[in-house]
Amino acid sequence: MLTNGGILKFIKGILITVNIIFLLGLFGCYSAYFINPSDYWFISLLGLGYYIWLIANLAIIIIWIFIKWKYSLVSLVAILIGLSYHSKMFAFHLPSPGDTKNDRIRVMSYNIQLFKYYDWKKNEIQRDKIIDFISKNDADVYCFQEYFQTRNQEFITTEKMKEILPEHTMHFEAGVVKYNNQEFGLATFSKFPILHSGYITIDSTKNRTNLVIYTDLLIKKDTIRVYNVHLASNHLNTNEVDSIMNTSEKSIFFAKKWMKKLKNGYKRRYEQVNILANHLKRSPYSTIIAGDFNDVPMSYTYRIMNRKYRDAFIESGSGIGATYNGNLPMLRIDYIFHTSDFDCKRFKVYPQSTTDHYPIMADFYLSR
Asked: 22-73: per-residue pLDDT in tens?
């Protein structure tokens, strides 16, 4: 039979073990920022659980304070070591009035999920909700991922977009063209004149659902380049996520399937972001890079972008900035990056529920 001292010793032993697990998870999360996911993709998974590891270590600190306060310093130091990482996850800025509208370059990025084309029962209703939202939120440049259009009247999208954006010119590139004239790709709508445009093939698979397009815009006497990006998705099915979260009989099956998808997604994004980074090096203009990167800030993908380009959310956003509208909460996977010759004065996430991504918008001003 355990004495009171024995019980306390046993509890301490359990807490120390749990504390070590939490520390390993947190440091693993930090390492996901640097580790090549093509070689060690499973490390990248820890980056997805950043908030879990952070909250767990904060909780263990509070528990140790009431049991043996000196032990709380271990997790506290671990959290302080990661301050540079935490600064990529949170932003705290008050709204800025900015300059005059004439100097502003307002950019929206939005994965519009094919205008909900495959929501057969109410796809036209959902499409019109998306278009109505866009019409009520004016931007100078719109970067749309998972853009869908047809060359017939089956499911009208582009015609409706041109109606609500009569002053904008469209740059569209199809990653996939189906036999019945359905086109899937990226679209950039610009109020500024388009001088030049092109695309980057980043996906080695035949089904090129991922793509990058770039558009050179004339703004007064300056030329800027806008990249519209859609990197590989993990293709996580909502039903699969629900089964894992609900610990049903099929949880193990779906968990294995999910892991395979995640592994493939990390490896593809590793290749794609490096292709994009190499193209960015050759950009002769001030540059804005917007889109769906399908990766969190604690990732190799984010590091490749953030080491040379500023994150507009960190520059002028507030809070967590989650952009994924799904059963995995608090994920920020959509970004607007920019070169240092832009000042970002405003960043906003619009938590509307029509698609599985939230639209994001940023106001830029050329600082030179």
From this structure: 999 999 999 999 988 888 888 888 888 999 999 999 999 999 998 888 999 9
Dihedral over alpha carbons 293, 298, 299, 301 (to 10 degrees): 40
| Beta carbons of 239 and 327 less than 8 angstroms apart | no
The residues of the chain that CATH labels 3.60.10.10 are: 101-366
Side-chain-facing half-sphere of 300: CA atoms under 13 Å: 23
Q: How far apart are the first and last CA of the chain?
A: 76
**Which CATH architecture describes the domain 101-366?**
4-Layer Sandwich (3.60)
Q: Which two tokens stand for residue 169?
A: 């010119």
The pLDDT, as a whole number, for residue 367 is 80
- Are 31 and 43 contacting, i.e. CB atoms less than 8 angstroms apart? yes
Distances in Å between the Cα of 49 and the Cα atoms of 32, 43, 334, 368 are 11, 11, 17, 40
Detail the DSSP E strand segments found in the chain: 105-111, 141-150, 169-177, 182-190, 194-200, 211-219, 222-230, 286-292, 310-311, 334-338, 342-349, 360-366
Q: Are 329 and 279 in contact (CB under 8 A)?
A: no
Are the beta carbons of 345 and 88 closer than 8 angstroms? Answer: no
Chain-centroid distance of CA 27 in Å reads 22
Q: Indicate the helix (H) or strand (E) that contains 301.
A: helix 300-306
**Measured distance CA(236)–CA(220) in Å, rounded:** 44
Q: Which residues pair with 363 in a beta bridge?
A: 106, 346
- Note the Cα 275 to chain centre separation in Å: 18
Contact between 100 and 107 (Cβ < 8 Å): no
Residue range 112-170, pLDDT digits in tens: 999 999 888 889 999 999 999 999 999 999 999 999 998 888 899 999 999 999 999 99
